[in-house]
Amino acid sequence: MATFLLLVDSVVTLTMPWFAGRVAQSLLQGLVPDTLLLAWLAIMAVQALLAFGNNVALGQISAHVVADLGSRVYDHLQALPLSWHQERKRGEILALLTNDVWRLSGFLTGTLTPLLPLLFTCAGALILLMRIQPWIGLAVALGVPLLILILKMITRQLRPLANASLREDAIKYGIAEQNLASLPIIKAFTREDEESARYAAQGNTVRDLEVRQLRITSALTPAVRWVGAAAVLGLLWLGSHGIATGTLSAPALVSLLLYGLLLTQPVSQLAGVYGQIQIARGSARRLLDLLSESREPDSGQRPLHSVRGEIAFESVAFSYPGRPPLFAAIDWRVRAGETVAITGANGAGKSTLAQLVMRFVDPLAGTITLDGVDLREFSLPQLRARIGLVSQNVLLFNATVAHNIGYGRYAASQEQIEQAARAAHAHDFISQLPLAYETIIGDEGIRLSGGQKQRIALARALIKDPAILILDEATAMFDPEGELGFIAECRDLLEKRTVIIISHRPASLALANRVLRLEQGELAEVH
Ligand SMILES: Nc1ncnc2c1ncn2[C@@H]1O[C@H](COP(=O)(O)OP(=O)(O)O)[C@@H](O)[C@H]1O
Ligand SMILES: [Mg+2]
Question: Is residue 350 in contact with ligand 1, taking CB distance under 6 Å?
Answer without folding.
Answer: yes
